Amino acid sequence: MTQVRSLDLSLIRRARQIIAVSAAGFAIASAAFAQTPATTPSGPSDAATAAQSAFKRMDANKDGKLSKEEASRNPSVAAKFDAWDQDKDGSLSLDEFTAGYGAAAK
Ligand SMILES: [Ca+2]
Ligand SMILES: [Ca+2]
């Protein structure tokens, strides 16, 4: 009787360990999963989001346009600046930037 009880106890202890380990594993897996959206293969909307955040990073004076000077900090954008500036006003609007950025990403 006592032997059975102690066996039960050790089984319960092992089961608890397994649960604790898998709970930790699950926490790590969900933390990793939570970070994946930034690096997962991108659809059209993700490309637009990436363009938007790149635009915001580069728009130093936050006027919603990229001047040539602001664009010059990113050589790959600076090289495309004139091509992306569709209305030739000397600055890139978010639309112009997103269109150019999306085309370059393809
Ligand atoms: Ca600006
Ligand atoms: Ca423009």
Quick structural overview:
The protein is mostly helical and 106 residues long.
CATH class of the largest domain: Mainly Alpha
CATH topology of the largest domain: Recoverin, domain 1
CATH architecture assignment of the largest domain: Orthogonal Bundle
Q: Write down the secondary-structure element order.
A: HHEHHEH
3D shape: rod-shaped
Name every ligand kind in the structure. calcium ion
| Intertermini distance | 71 Å
Q: Please provide the count of β strands.
A: 2
The number of helical elements comes to: 5
**Which percent range fits the helix content?**
over 70%
CATH 4th-level superfamily of the largest domain: EF-hand
Approximately how much beta-strand content do the residues carry? 5-15%
* Structural domain tally: 2
Strand order of the largest sheet: 1-2
Mean pLDDT: 82
**Mind telling me the C-alpha Rg?**
27 Å
